[in-house]
Amino acid sequence: MEHKIIVFTDGGARGNPGPAAYGVFICDEKGKELAAIGKAIGISTNNIAEYAGVEGAFNWLLDNPNYSSKIYFYLDSLLVCNQLKGIYKIKNPTLMKMRQGIAIAERKLRDKNIEITYQHIPRAQNKKADALVNKALDE
């Protein structure tokens, strides 16, 4: 039986650049919460915060090995989603470096025959991750 992990990530900066945070909500295919992470990352940009969310999700996935065969990432940033898919080029050196770290994490999971996909979703479908961003920024 196929086991799926669903990952919602978001990032935001108030001011861009400004105080920034990311949110990660991870659940199984039945919607059971596995992790809810919100973390402030200091002064940064929206795009760096979005990438930090994906990094935070991979850190959790690698620290909490499970027996999933597929991991579905859902992001409301079209830019970051398409950069992760390789559709858009990454020009910012900081984002390039973050993408390289994500690629290493992807390889570790793919070496265990885990399929990883990235999907863009409307902001309205990413409320849990967005709420974690705002909670981290408010604290």
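[next item in queue]
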Amino acid sequence: MNIAIFEDTAVEKLAPITTSRPAYAIQCGAFQLIDLVGQLETNTIAAVRPHLLSIQERDYSFSAQLDAAQPKTLVLNAQIAPTVTNYQTIQQLAASDDCVIQVPGGNRIIAAVLPTDLLANDDWSKNLTSIVDAANLASAGVSLDFFEYPHDVIRLHMEHCEQNLEFRLLQNQYGRLADGVFVAKTSPPTIDPTAVFDSSSGPIIFDSNVKVGPHCFFRGPVYVGPNCKISEHSSIKDAVSIAHTCKIGGEVEGCVIEPWTNKQHYGFLGHSYLGSWINLGAGTCNSDLKNTYGKINMTYGDQTVSTGMQFVGCFIGDYAKTSINTSIFTGKTIGVASMVYGLATANVPSFVNYARTLGQMGLLPPEIAVTTQRRMFARRKVDHQQTDCQLIHDMFVLTEGERPSGLSSQPIAF
């Protein structure tokens, strides 16, 4: 059996999360979709948007093409959520006859099992709908949860974090530190003895080379990835998944944090998603609850979407920064490579200096973003490559429609 992962046009509704990363690389409950698919040990290929091709080639291990000797191929939408429940369904599909899973009421494809020869064309992902229609496939009779909008990442993370962490523990890479608390067997973490744990609602897992400062509190389910540093007096609780090489401090609740991101100082972060290479200034806080305690609506472009959720925080794209004491209103998005100062009362476009409370918003040119990127990489001893630079320039073009016309590139003066 082959596996072919694809992105369709709906992936754009996940911005700013997917502006800089393939949808299969979204972390949720301490897994990415490719982590779970990788456990099936099959020949896997992936089709992504053009500006991510070089990133995919460098950062992810996929086969160059389908194995023609395999009679069947399981096609998976990259927006499928990486949950254990979905993984079990994918296992069933891998052993099934030709079938399809579509979004109810439409012809958008979430998964399908097809003869491999139907996907022989290099443009198979662009023609997938017509291929499936021509094959006249039966419904699989099962469903898969998927991310449609950014808030779905937090919703599904909250629902599945505990089960995902229990599944991670089955891989036998962790030893028991205390009741419900587990640490990597290889390069075990350094945890100050004053740390306090509450695993009554789910496990707490510390991966290799984690460092935990004095007087920290953890309430599961919580996953802290390799090489992370948790600052002293931090409170990490209630479904938090932190990827590798992050520095985290303050109060964090119900959040997903991607690699290389720093929220090192005091401040509250709740029910939020942080991409990679983000830095939150000391005192940055977000709201995740309306004063009316009502359900939260999100604004995506010119569309208002009801989340059906009472707690929704912010969604911050890669390379974004906040100044000290920045406050972010409930349910706001901050675009990639933007810098936010003061109060964010509305969605922030990509590549802007945003200080609306001071009556200022200016363009942040890609050259400045690349210079900042290079300095960040050097600080973390990461090789800065042309691929990284090109991604910045590509994202600047792709997000042009987010920004008001006529923005000045003059720096904001304080």
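[queue empty]
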